[in-house]
Design a protein that fits this description.
The complex is a heterotetramer, with two copies of chain A and two copies of chain B.
Chain A lengths: L1 E3 H17 L1 H11 L4 H15 L8 H16 L3 H16 L4 E3 H19 L9 H14 L6 H18 L23 H18 L10
Antiparallel strand pairs in A: 1-2
Chain B lengths: L10 H12 L4 E4 L4 E4 L9 E8 L10 E2 L4 E7 L5 H11 L5 E6 L2 H16 L4 E6 L19 H14 L4 H13 L1 E7 L19 E4 L10 E4 L3 H15 L7 E8 L5 H17 L3 E8 L9 E8 L2 H8 L3 E2 L5
Parallel strand pairs in B: 3-5, 3-6, 6-7, 11-12
Antiparallel strand pairs in B: 1-2, 2-5, 4-14, 8-9, 8-13, 9-10, 11-13
Helix pairs in contact in B: 2-3, 4-5, 4-8, 6-7
Classes of the chains: A mainly alpha, B alpha/beta.
The complex binds adenosine-5'-diphosphate (2 copies) and magnesium ion (4 copies).
One adenosine-5'-diphosphate sits at the interface of chains D and C.
């Protein structure tokens, strides 16, 4: 099973919807240990993205993901704009000008994305950032991919790991971003950025989990 | 949430419309991407100063655009750093062959976006320097934080660097001076009330009726410590001890003393706080060479203040005194 | 009550101490009786302008003392008119042979005390004129009231009359001009929140979370009408309809449009309101010749705004544009 | 019975004490239909007055009342400063350089005070101002003085009339002062200035009612 061009568009749309459904929660998570704009920023960014995506436009998954990334950077601003944007521009480079992506390539793309976020933001695992759901998700995918797992299973493990990772940020002491200013280091609060990443993986799993697009693939 | 706004999503756009209406003699407003630019910019031969940050801090930075200060300012969404694209567009609009100086408050978002924009400018062959402002002693300066935040010193850096640029100094000279100003400045703030981001609709945090939040951030970030409310004499003493002890400022130093309101505190209270700050300086043997008191860096309608001290030399004082014609600072 | 103050009884004294510390280049502070005087006043041959009123409206009036505006300002206790003795002392300190002009907001207390002081000055042979400012259309102008209150127009009268005095015009000429400015100005305000007089300790009145008080006074006097909170576009339309219809301002008029914050409203909101005011003016065919937006006449920490329109002619515009060097207005 | 110099001083001290005891009430009455400073102003003024009065200083009742009036004007400001100050400066002129005052002269002095307030402030009876307790008090005194009433009885009637007058301001629609700005005209609220006058008469009655100073007088 492959991730198709239209899956990718539906992923982004679903991601937008999940963020919209949870925008207040995300703002509130950010208000507690930051400045309260994370949900609004993600929503503004994804609305802009959805507005520029046409039915078959841009015409390859790589180009599409690149457009998603650059649109997020320009429409979001903030800390999350460049970082979440980087997730997509890095994936775009790995995926290239194709109209379907296999699970293995997708995992490599997500690894590149996580590395890119790490380099740009300078954060490490455990710093209470979006990396704390992004990295576990990538590692979970890497652990199962290549066996006889379907794309669905791979993405299921990613979504689960991202969710757990996000929830566990509640225990972490922030060392990066605005939450590092808070006296408590934000211990006791869930990181908004990690929660945003969780929705990104949930959206992808939702879209692929709905099944539908069984093209001929490796698994 | 009761504010004089229309749609929360249009707050920045509507405020820009208002700025354009009020200051047609000084500013030109560009929309999509949004930036505020000095009238008749670019100014040939002059290093262009560009700053920006989230909205909600007015008059910073748009109110500092004009002769003797900034060439352009990029307002992000409320409390949200402007995007790299926005910054690039603003810089491109005002850049000269003398280059562009970015004055960036040290927040992760601002750093990321300004740095990206700086790289894009460099790719386009425009010389560009980035100066970080990180004066807030409320944040521990360790590897366990994102580093100190930029607060009150920003106004001082922008004024003094702006005057130097106006004199025709080189990009490197202006950048070096700006870094020197930042290095000699320290700030700390406190809040009596929180503030409400329009699209959130409820306050970022709640401060009890008898409490004060010490070390609060200008984006409504919770501070480091809650203390019982006390006479302003004691509160300003707390802030200034932290500020003075950090650099440290020592007896004999000449300083600019800046008492800044966070948006909801009226001027009568700021004058009282400024008087207490002057008294603290005197008690430490510091000579207040110049003072500034007013709401220049706000956090929406937050009640509270920040205090900033800058150790000055003759050069900085001369540049501080140099003419400036902006919406918020003018002399 | 959470304020940046020490003892409520010392609020005015402490604020004066702060003003003295912040503006040594412009102002001299006199204590007991309290007044703020222009540095190097009296200015030989120039009509001396003296104003004043209760404290709690900062920067009015002390922030308007300086070159091109007032020679002295008398701050009363919070929301309390200064005493006749205080006014007399201030006037005596800055008076010249050209005489003294009192600019008085039309409140019973201000009228009584300034009138008494004017009589005492006359007894001492100092020529003195009193100009009343009464621009607030929220008050019916009938024998059933104390007459209209002075609000936003005060700044405009003081600036324009100040510039005329600086040019060396006679007492009668300056008084006449000041009356002409007042006659061409109308204002109205609204509040989102009330404010707390320090020695009272609780708000003068309470406005519900979803309500706006229309026609509020700058001393926290309750207004004439409560309406549900609405987008600022609608609120400013209400205020400007009342203001425009009263004079009335008619298509083709040139105006100065002044959006004033009441103390607790941050600049970002004032800019939005100013943009709406400009739109209302345009819709009525009024040409906005100049604009002013900021918190110049406050009511302690009250959130809200007043809008003022002044019909101008070339003479008034030229005087408005003339240089001014005060703590609050400077160009 | 006469009002002596020391009675006069004790009157002013008692007046100061009554205002101090009721300062919050007076501020609140003023907050409801004005700007909330009336109690504080009266208190500041009377504290200043008490500070300048010595045991036999100034040395006549006329001079003493004059000092009270001018000190109130200079220490109070506001609307009430000149008006309440006028009460005492007008009385001073009628009373003159004496060290005791008969009831009849006192009533003439209060009449002059009321007229002075009327001229200075331009208010009439029923305008919801301090005149609405001052005038009834003067009229009540005028009605009983000269008969076989003691100074105590005269002042009792004044205190009663002032109290009733102040209370009845609740029904009045303000036509003067800051209360005239309020939409309702302040109907339903008691006027602070009239209440202040009420305490002035209560203080005088308290002091004379304590009896004590029976010097040889007309009654
Ligand atoms: N250096 C960093 N590297 C990776 N992620 C970061 C970093 N700093 C902050 N973040 C993430 O960004 C999220 C906040 O995004 P956003 O609200 O846009 O930031 P801000 O408002 O502080 O600019 C945080 O919850 C965190 O997950
Ligand atoms: N024109 C007037 N004549 C007599 N008394 C007046 C007049 N106007 C107001 N007052 C009295 O003054 C009182 C308020 O005094 P004060 O609080 O000092 O006034 P303000 O704060 O409005 O200057 C009112 O309660 C009323 O009794
Ligand atoms: Mg944020
Ligand atoms: Mg932000
Ligand atoms: Mg008053
Ligand atoms: Mg009052």
């Amino acid at each position: 099973m492959l991730l198709s061009h239209s899956d990718t568009i539906r992923w982004i749309q679903r991601y937008r919807d999940l963020i919209a459904d949870n925008v207040d929660e995300l703002n509130k998570l950010d208000a507690a240990i930051g400045d309260g704009d994370f949900g609004a920023s993600m929503q503004r960014g994804l609305n802009a993205v959805v507005a520029v995506l046409g039915p078959g436009e841009p015409d390859s998954i790589g180009k599409l993901l690149h457009t998603v990334g650059t649109t997020l950077v320009s429409a979001m601003g903030g800390t999350s704009g460049p970082l979440v944007g980087t997730v997509f521009t890095k994936m775009a480079r790995v995926v290239g000008d194709v109209d379907a992506v296999e699970a293995s390539a997708l995992v490599v793309a997500f690894r590149a994305a996580a590395d890119g976020v790490g380099v740009l933001g300078g954060a490490e695992r455990g710093d209470k950032t979006m990396l704390d759901s992004l990295l576990p998700a990538v590692e979970a995918m890497e652990a199962v991919v290549g066996g006889d797992h379907t794309l669905q299973t791979v993405l299921h493990s990613a979504a689960e790991a991202a969710r757990t990772g996000a929830e566990r940020t509640i225990e972490l002491h922030a060392r990066k971003g605005r939450a590092s200013y808070v006296g408590s280091g934000g211990v006791g609060c869930i990181d908004p950025g990690a929660t945003g990443m969780r929705y990104m993986f949930a959206a992808l799993h939702d879209v692929v989990g709905e099944g539908i697009h069984y093209s001929e693939g490796t698994q | 949430m009761k504010k004089l706004i229309n749609d929360p999503a249009e707050v920045v756009a509507d405020a820009l419309t208002g700025m354009a209406a009020v200051h047609p003699d000084m500013l030109t407003i560009h929309r999509n991407p949004d930036f505020i630019r000095r009238r008749n910019s670019p100014v040939a031969g002059k290093v262009a100063l560009v700053s920006g940050g989230g909205s909600g801090h007015e008059p910073m930075h748009g109110g500092f655009v004009g002769i003797g200060m900034l060439d352009a300012a990029c307002p992000g969404a409320v409390f949200t750093s402007p995007s790299a694209n926005q910054i690039q567009a603003a810089a491109a609009a005002v850049a000269t062959e003398a280059g562009v100086l970015f004055i960036v408050k040290n927040y992760t978002g601002d750093r990321l976006n300004f740095t990206m924009a700086a790289e894009w400018l460099a790719d386009d062959g425009i010389p560009c320097e980035v100066v970080l402002v990180d004066d807030d002693v409320a944040v521990e300066n360790s590897t366990h934080t994102a580093g100190r935040r930029g607060t009150g010193a920003t106004v001082l850096v922008e004024k003094i660097a702006g005057a130097a640029a106006e004199q025709g100094r080189s990009l490197l000279a202006v950048a070096q001076l700006a870094r020197r100003v930042n290095a000699g400045a320290r700030s700390m703030g406190l809040a009596l009330t929180s503030s409400t981001v329009p699209h959130v609709g409820s306050p970022n945090f709640v401060i009890g009726d008898a409490e004060v939040e010490l070390g609060v951030g200008i984006h409504g970030e919770p501070g480091r410590r809650r203390i019982p409310h006390a006479p302003v004499k004691e509160l300003v003493a707390l802030l200034s001890e932290a500020v003075i002890g950090d650099l440290p400022f020592v007896a004999g130093d000449r300083v600019i003393a800046f008492t800044n309101g966070l948006g909801g505190t009226p001027l009568i209270e700021l004058y009282i706080a400024a008087g207490e700050l002057a008294a603290c300086c005197a008690a430490h043997g510091l000579t207040v060479a110049r003072s500034l008191a007013g709401s220049y860096i706000t956090a929406l309608e937050m009640a509270g203040c920040t205090i900033t001290l800058l150790r000055v030399d003759d050069e900085m004082l001369e540049l501080w005194d140099a003419p400036v014609t902006t919406a918020a600072l003018r002399w």
